[in-house]
Amino acid sequence: MPLPSDDHVHSQFSWDAVTGDLEGTCRRAVDLGLPAVSFTEHVDLQAWSAPPGGWNWPAGVRGTIDGHGRFLAAPLEVEVYVAEVARCRELFPGLTIRLGIELDAGHRHPREVGELLRTGFERVVGSVHALADLQEPGRFVEVDAAYAQRRPVDVVLAYLAEVDDMVRADTPFHVLGHLDYPLRHWPAGVEVPWADLEEPVRETLRTLAASGRALEVNTSLPLDRRVVRWWHEAGGDAVSFGSDAHSPGELARRFRDVSRVVQAAGFAPTDDPTQLWGRRSAPAGPSRGHQ
Fold first, then answer.
1. CB atoms within 10 A of CB 281
2. 175-176 and 36-43 beta bridge pairing
3. Which of 210, 213, 143, 215 is nearest to 178 (CA)?
4. CA pair distance 176, 127, nearest whole angstrom
5. How far apart are CA 265 and CA 54, in angstroms?
6. CA quadruple 7, 12, 13, 16: dihedral sign
7. 177 exposed, middle or buried (CB, 10 Å; 0-12, 13-18, 19+)?
8. Sign (positive or negative) of CA dihedral 57, 60, 63, 69
9. Phi then psi for 270, rounded to 5 degrees?
10. What does the alpha-carbon distance between residue 85 and residue 163 come to, in Å, rounded to a whole number?
11. Looking at the DSSP assignment, which residues form a beta bridge with residue 215?
């Protein structure tokens, strides 16, 4: 089965993609035989409070730290980014290249988001990267740092609540990115309590399905197969695949294995290989299981 499109990709235009390369990623997509690639460059409008021990960003990360130690990511250089996508479309005419963004917590910044979206982005991934700072009301901490303030299960529950708010606020995005983002930072050796998380996850998926948006299966940390099944059971119509690549070599990572999981959960490619996978009438096998 051919690989699906990679619809969550970062290049040098994302503030944290220190080895990103838009042209190199397109060349890699052609080599892999991908039908399409969506560049979804970071737009993070919220300043984050410093984590315990302070910031330890790698060299090349772009942003500012204010007098209170809060980090604010550098803004997206929209005009230069648009021009580079146009140039690469000429270099790789057989590859569908989408101009997009990954919009962090857009429901908190409606005015800025409205102005930004005048650009006409073709793929907007909605995501959440930070939670309320329990030590400084009105501030936010990146999800990794939130584990210092909450029990692990409470980090996930707070994250789901924030995602639910973003979806219900009618924030303008097409695909919900990395629903399982907090699990990237889950404590090593501690089992994820799916029995406690099942209903909150299902509720968020029902809200997302009712909004008509798609769910991303992010392969940076492959989404647990039970969540993909719950998405089908919630009535979800479409699935996107996103490597969350920040360099060309990460493009479409794990796609072959993960696409089989998604197909077993009840989704399949459409007649247009550049588009999202659509819903089949029924998944294969039981509705519960392990990754």
1. 6
2. unpaired
3. 215
4. 6
5. 42
6. positive
7. buried
8. positive
9. -95, -175
10. 29
11. 176, 239
pLDDT digits (tens, 9 = 90+) for 258-277: 999 999 999 999 999 999 99
Give the integer Cα–Cα distance in Å for 236 and 245: 25
Q: Residue 94's CB: how many other CB atoms inside 10 A?
A: 6
DSSP string, 54-86: ---PPTT--EEE-TTS-EEEPPP-HHHHHHHHH
Please report, for residues 43, 103, 139, 157, 181, the alpha-carbon distance to residue 50 in angstroms, rounded to integers and kept in the order given: 19, 21, 10, 22, 19
Structure-token match 């492959």, residue found: 222
- Taking only the tens place, the pLDDT of each residue in 156-199 is 999 999 999 999 998 899 999 999 999 999 999 999 999 999 99
Is the separation of the CB atoms in 241 and 255 below 8 Å? yes
Q: Where are the beta strands (DSSP E) in 89-135?
A: 96-104, 123-127, 130-132
Q: Which residues contact 138 (CB under 8 A, 6 or more apart)?
A: none
Inter-residue contact 29 to 59 (CB < 8 Å):
no
Amino acid in the structure at residue 264 = A
Q: Copy the structure tokens of residue 192.
A: 């994820």
Phi, psi of 285, deg, nearest 5: 85, -175
The residues, any chain, with a CB within 8 Å of residue 68's CB and separated by 6 or more, are: 49
- Amino acid 61: pLDDT: 97
Torsion angle, alpha carbons of 210, 99, 245, 75, to 10: -100
The C-alpha atoms of residue 283 and residue 265 are separated, in whole angstroms, by: 5
Q: Dump pLDDT digits (tens) for 86-107.
A: 999 999 999 999 999 999 999 9
User: Which residue's structure tokens are 């800025």?
Assistant: 112
Closest-CA residue to 99 (of 44, 176, 36): 36
Give CA 124 to chain center in angstroms.
10
Tokens 């039908």 correspond to 35
